[in-house]
Known about the structure:
The structure is a homodimer.
Chain A: E1 2-6, E2 13-18, H1 25-28, E3 36-42, H2 46-55, E4 61-67, H3 76-88, E5 96-101, H4 103-115, E6 121-126, H5 129-135, E7 140-145, E8 148-155, E9 160-164, H6 173-190, H7 192-206, H8 210-230, H9 245-255, H10 262-279, H11 285-297, H12 310-318, E10 330-335, E11 338-342, H13 347-359
Parallel strand pairs in A: 2-9, 3-4, 3-5, 5-6, 6-9
Antiparallel strand pairs in A: 1-2, 7-8, 10-11
Helix pairs in contact in A: 3-4, 5-6, 5-8, 6-7, 6-8, 6-10, 7-8, 9-10, 9-12, 10-11, 10-13
Amino acid sequence: MKTLNVDLGDRSYPIHIGAGLLGRADLIRPHIPGRQVMVVSNTTVAPLYLDRLSAALDGFDVRSVILPDGEQYKTLDTVNLIFTALLEARFNRTCTLIALGGGVVGDITGFAAASYQRGVHFIQVPTTLLSQVDSSVGGKTGVNHPLGKNMIGAFYQPRVVIADIDTLNTLPDRELAAGVAEVIKYGLINDPDFFAWLEANMDAVNAREVDALSFAIERSCADKAAVVAADEREGGVRALLNLGHTFGHAIETGLGYGAWLHGEAVGAGMVMAAHLSHELGWIGDDDLDRVERIVARGKLPNRPPRGMSKARFLELMAVDKKVLDGRLRLVLMRGLCDSVVTNEFAVAALERSLDGQIAEAIDWPSA
Amino acid sequence: MKTLNVDLGDRSYPIHIGAGLLGRADLIRPHIPGRQVMVVSNTTVAPLYLDRLSAALDGFDVRSVILPDGEQYKTLDTVNLIFTALLEARFNRTCTLIALGGGVVGDITGFAAASYQRGVHFIQVPTTLLSQVDSSVGGKTGVNHPLGKNMIGAFYQPRVVIADIDTLNTLPDRELAAGVAEVIKYGLINDPDFFAWLEANMDAVNAREVDALSFAIERSCADKAAVVAADEREGGVRALLNLGHTFGHAIETGLGYGAWLHGEAVGAGMVMAAHLSHELGWIGDDDLDRVERIVARGKLPNRPPRGMSKARFLELMAVDKKVLDGRLRLVLMRGLCDSVVTNEFAVAALERSLDGQIAEAIDWPSA
Lengths: 367, 367
């Protein structure tokens, strides 16, 4: 087992990463201050892992809320379901909420924990690669509104994160790959050694080898933690974590949510960011080629989806919430594994780059 | 004008108190970082004061949401109305929400500000005495759930509070008195000089004399700020602010919300706390008499309402969220103006005190 400490002053917490952690009472019990525990999970994950987690919580007053599975349930109404369950159980402000599931369960549960009686204890038990590398660090919680994704929420830190690699064994290939997209992202932001490690070890990651997955998760979390510690409330450098995401969100919205997984859209989005950086002369042919290849080796799309026009991309990117005062800011690559947040590029370059990428658009999953 | 600084490190903010402040652009504009401003008000307050406030915001992109008036609208659905208005206006995370109204508007708007895009700027312009003395300090925001009051929310501080005494001229007498209940509370918690000042000046407060109101608001806010600064997240001494509130909440719930105003229930609740303290031998006959008289002079009920039994009181007080681990904790008086949070009293004493009080129960408003 590896343990990483996220350093946020009095909101610091450990992330435990390894196999067989779900049943480890010694890891979770010290972080539960009262007796009341509400486990929030969904209809896919609960049948697989709720019993194992509950066994580690013997002696506590443990209840559970099982949500329907899917991003479409990431709403204020679903958060209210959790409030109702907590109040029906008469849980007080010393209670603890545990999120057992992927990113959607974690985001909803974290916001419920932030808001129930103005804040109760929160523990993350992420069961997907995406949530283990992405949601474990950063404290972003929240839900969608019909007019925008992730528009409602709170910054709220868990007391502990338990990333049990064993839970990835039940994860579909396509969802594993969606998590790999975020792993690649941490290399590309500012960690060339990790990027090189991924080039050498992507087959082991795809084969779900425990050591490879553990290392990839630990390094991703450490890289993210360093960025978050420098900028907890997202004023500056934290925007680097959006590498590939402005293009990616445009793809998700353009296709309709769910057509491509978030990580798939981010995979294509990182290549699109690399293309624009190449168009601007900031990275060379070989760098661009390495980005395209690592994304493909992660079993992710490395081109935009067929059917989206340049006009549609520009329209969707302009409403992205990273736009400040009307000037589009993107995460681009000054060099390979040396990303920056910038609005210093000509719109004409963005348009040329989009033209080039759209000409090579693909269907996904490929036939 | 008086200005009080609430000292909470990097979340410190000023409270300006005085007449004619609503139109003072110089007080409000420095606290608005972007251009987008959403004023949230209600159907009672907006016709009276929205134009005056908007005039001070000339040059900003000012929109407004006008909520229905009443505690029954303090719900998650109403918060969602604000999110919808913000998203329809395409307001980004640099926007500012201004609460123009009483405690309900402030609580709802503060929670919306805490949660919109995980936190935007928030300004309080309280227009009732209750909200000027109570909601201005402490950062408690939130809404009700059908199963409990104030069960959903956040601790979230405003950038500035502007308490314009002129807005109290349109306040009904009964609502002014409800605010006076909280003013009396600050004296009774731990400020004997202020309590003596109230005994000498209650007629001037009731007559809405500007100097008397200004002083009462300033002193109440200062007393509350001192408690909050010592305990921002309500772990310990902050519970003193609940003096009269556990009895008061029982009255509000027992009668059905709205039969007695919150401040009226707190007025009677403070007398009930004094009675129990007297029963325990902690305060003398003269002290109890002074508490009963100051509450009556504040035009507030100083006895519980007719129709509530001892059993009903005990049942309702036991579910109050201040109960930790099943042992009822109350704010009681070790001496006049020397209150403590304690569970060190015999339930038998509480029952005797309730018997005595219920024997003298009253109707309110009195005929």
